[in-house]
């Protein structure tokens, strides 16, 4: 198990390095000069002196190789550089906002699993029945509503019409825990609306597939009760694909909360990214993309470890 | 099946087509200018001139919705088309040439999948600035790897097909093979991927536009309209509803189309019926009450099993009967498709949901001496017998053990399910020792993948005999094992039988050599019917049915001078010959064989055959 974990960890670290290099290369190898692009707002040719000054500040005049070493060296020390707009250290801003995004994604994942897994189970056990058909139709619908539509409509209904919650925002947990959770639940629920449907679908088809397996019939032949068969021989076997899909989606969500954070005015990492994109703040964009991609890689590592916990065969693989 | 799939496809297909037509024809429709502002009438409600009202700049909402469809769909289609061409090309090249080409195409494309999609789109927007062109570019980068994966996987399986190999052998130019032969064969999954991608592209496009990073105002786009209507949702909530509705319904429609398309192209993927063990249909007419005088352990009478077929129900097992005395071993012999396994599963009450018993009785004398008809026993009572009075060993021990549960726990289930609560651990170890598992204390803690195939089958046997069953059903228990291991397992079963004394055994196999080793009597099945029955020694010495004779002649260990295979194959259950079912493959067939179906005739006490010419075989 330990050897397996170490091996997977080494691969993950290598992947993060590849991602960091790619992000660096993409920014530096695209045609056009970032400094010039940055300063040319509205199609007016920028002042050459200003461009030169910015190039100097960004270190763009140094050879690519030197820039790369400096960039990687900075990353190792947790230094992502300074924002072009206000010269604020990017690492600080990320450290402030990342936990908020993780909280949102984590809560959304928890809600999705909490209702997707049991409903998928129930639908599979009653496959073809009215409950299954109703749940499946609901899942098709939920999967088709874009997340910003769900969020916008949730605000319209819950905040504007029913006045149940406020239209969005953020209160630190330390200041007001109740309000913090209340403000968290609506955006998390918005994400879980679609994600829960994904979990439901995967769980349903996974359970149906496991029920057909020979070991279920063998357990029946031993006289094991249906409840015990489901508990011991179906649920755990069916969870493997669910873990994969949830993790994949959570990874996608790390960058995909952009829309939800925007709709609910949630001051997470994604809002920061949108602002950076709008301002064409290259160091900021690079830093955020790198952090999110690294988390993505980390998540994949965690999933592999989860597999090993669920399925003893993986540990030896 | 295909026709049903196509009919289901018609509704979403036609609606999609209609939406597409509207989007194409928008410039020709008598609509208000979607960008002309009329600030005096901002947020005006529906009127004769503006059916859906006017937005925050007084622009006509209906016109903007329809023009928005055109913008959204054209971006989504253009991006998907570009992605499809690039992705398919990469996938086919990678899948066809493999090696370095695969690395340079498919694997490179997959790097894109390492990034969260929206993040990547934002990165591209940062570099190129917002606009429809940027959108199409970034979306096609995002979706090309998906196409590459599908095309790659399909190409891998298609290139191994005979006609592709044949074309290569004939020296056809590679380009022509790829375009003319390969592409049409992998088109179906690509079409599904295409409709799936259009839907995803629409969602992403509208999302980016909603953020203000996609389509540039004042062009109408559903995402932009939702963005605009958010600010005024308190005064004019309907403004928000229309684009939300348009977007959701279009995506829903595309997803529906995609699901139906997949079903139509690949009927295998369609949802199966409900799981077997939750439902056991007991739709049989009541049979004569089992008389107390029924001798022996098991008596199967007139068992007939049916499955639904394309042209009405098909009988896969017809009028099968045999009996078994305590302590006796009966072999059921036949090729695959003879119905021998289904007969065994019917005794256990574990038939797959599609198979229904329609006639017959299965009388079983339980431990308490009472006789029950297993075919009509309610599931709850049946469950009490399974694993206690009746046990079963399956063909493939690798799949009949749950890979995620320790061996000892699975053996213990047999005990716990029948009320044993104390000393389970010790009994499990004793059972594992009894079936010859080395170091049973440690092996009980092992997972199935940690022991060999033969040992897994020993574990299955341990679980089966845990409660000293009256009847042990063994369905091809040695088929999946190595020859040397086969002999060990057979020896184990024989030893267990001696130890258990009264335990009867039904041994289902296609291997006559095994029958000679283990069974007292044998029932030979062919195409769902019993064709011959008798004591094993007599059956081998003097077969009275040409099929039995042919089986013996095809035994590698047989006494025949030359190994002869039986020509032809078992007929499919929906295409049974009219007369004797074996006649088309029979060397002795005559005209009468094709006309009448011979009855199973008792030719001596305990011997029966279903052949018109049995006397000539003496």
UniProtKB/TrEMBL annotation, chain B:
Domain (ABC transmembrane type-1): residue spans on this chain: 69-258
Its membrane topology: Peripheral membrane protein; Multi-pass membrane protein
Keywords: ATP-binding, Cell membrane, Membrane, Nucleotide-binding, Transmembrane, Transmembrane helix, Transport
Parts of the chain that traverse the membrane: 71-96, 108-128, 134-152, 190-216, 236-258
One Pfam short name: BPD_transp_1
PROSITE patterns assigned to the protein according to its UniProt record, in alphabetical order: ABC_TM1 (PS50928), ABC_TRANSPORTER_1 (PS00211), ABC_TRANSPORTER_2 (PS50893)
Chief site of localization: membrane
GO molecular function, one term: ATP hydrolysis activity
CDD domains for the chain: ABC_NikE_OppD_transporters, TM_PBP2
Protein's GO biological process: peptide transport; transmembrane transport
Domain ABC transporter, residue spans: 298-552
Subcellular location per the Swiss-Prot or TrEMBL entry: Cell inner membrane; Cell membrane
Cellular component GO terms, alphabetical: plasma membrane
Family: Belongs to the ABC transporter superfamily.
Name this protein carries in UniProt: Dipeptide/oligopeptide/nickel ABC transporter permease/ATP-binding protein
